[in-house]
Amino acid sequence: MASSVVTSFQPRYEMLLPLFRSAFLGDRNVFKVSATPSAQVGYSRKTIQCKESRIGKQPIAVPTNVTIALEGQDLKVKGPLGELALTYPREVELIKEDAGVLRVKKTVETRRANQMHGLFRTLTDNMVVGVSKGFEKKLILVGVGYRATVEGKELVLNLGFSHPVKMQIPESLKVKVEENTRITVSGYDKSEIGQFAATVRKWRPPEPYKGKGVKYSDEIVRRKEGKAGKKK
C-alpha cells in the first residue's frame, strides 16, 4: 500500500519541480536583463563664492597714542598700557590704510578663510583697545564665609575648603578686591584676563539651589527648586 502511494506521488513531484525552481531560484529563459546602456545624466558645475563676514569687513580705528608695526603676517601693537603681538594665518592679511584705519582681508575664498576673517578682525580690535583703554572682568563671591584678599602677587581665596586657595597673579594683570567679596581683574590682554577670571570661578562654580559660589558680575544663575518635604 505504501509503495503505491510513493509511485503515484513521484510523477506529480517531478512535474512541479521546474515551477518551484523558476519561482525561487530564477529561470534564465523567463527573466532577461537588458544590456542596452542608459542615457547619461548631464550636470553643471557652479562656483560658490563665500559671503564676506559681517564682523570681518568692519574697519578698525587706531587711536593716535597707539603704534602699529606690520611685517608680513606679524603684527605688533604698542600703546600706553603695554605691547601685544599677533601672527596672522595665510588665509587672511592685514592692510593699513590712511587716516589710521586697519582692515582685515581674505586672501583666498574658502570656508576656513571666512572663519578666520571675523576671528582675526576681533582679535586685532581687542589688541588696539587693550593697549589704549584696557579691559576688566568682575567676579562676586556668594556664600557664608567666602572672602578674598590680595597678598603681594597672590590672590588668596577662602571658599569653604579646609585650606585657602592661593593663585599667582600674572605680571600683566591687576587684581583688586572690594568688600572682601568683589574681585576686579584688569589689564590690556583680554584673553589673559578672561582666562584668569575663569580659573578663579572654576574653584567654586555657582550651584543652582542656593546660588553659592564664584560668579561673574553679569552672570545669571538659573535657580532650581529643592526637594519638597513630605506633606503631613
TrEMBL record:
InterPro entries: Ribosomal_uL6-like, Ribosomal_uL6-like_a/b-dom_sf, Ribosomal_uL6_a/b-dom, Ribosomal_uL6_bac-type, Ribosomal_uL6_CS. It comes from the Eukaryota. SUPFAM superfamilies: Ribosomal protein L6. The keyword Secreted does not apply. Residues 62-134, 142-216 form the Large ribosomal subunit protein uL6 alpha-beta domain. Keywords: Ribonucleoprotein, Ribosomal protein. Belongs to the universal ribosomal protein uL6 family. This is Large ribosomal subunit protein uL6 alpha-beta domain-containing protein. It comes from Brassica rapa subsp. trilocularis. The lineage of its organism: Eukaryota, Viridiplantae, Streptophyta, Embryophyta, Tracheophyta.
